[in-house]
Amino acid sequence: MSIVIRAHFDGRVIVPDEPVDLPVNQPIELEVRQGRSAEREAAWQRLLSSRIEGLNISEESLERENLYEDRL
Question: pLDDT tens across 4-58, in order?
Fold first, then answer.
């Protein structure tokens, strides 16, 4: 079983940001990854929501028959 628990380090221990539904004394294994700052998260969301301009190729043009038409 795998779950993601958001937490912070208070200088001494890792503290979950919300209640965790685990049995008391349950052995667990942690993988620590540094979270994104609010500024970095906002930049990431702007990137994901922006429209990336590029080639405007129709789906029909990308069909296999049309891509390899000259090779048949």
Answer: 888 888 999 999 999 998 899 999 998 888 777 778 888 888 888 877 777 777 7
- Interatomic CA distance for residues 2 and 29, integer angstroms: 10
* Cα separations in angstroms, 53 against 45, 50, 67: 17, 9, 22
Q: Residue 71: helix, strand or coil by DSSP?
A: helix
pTM for the structure as a whole: 0.44
The candidate with the shortest Cα–Cα distance to 32, out of 65, 62, 61, 5, is 5
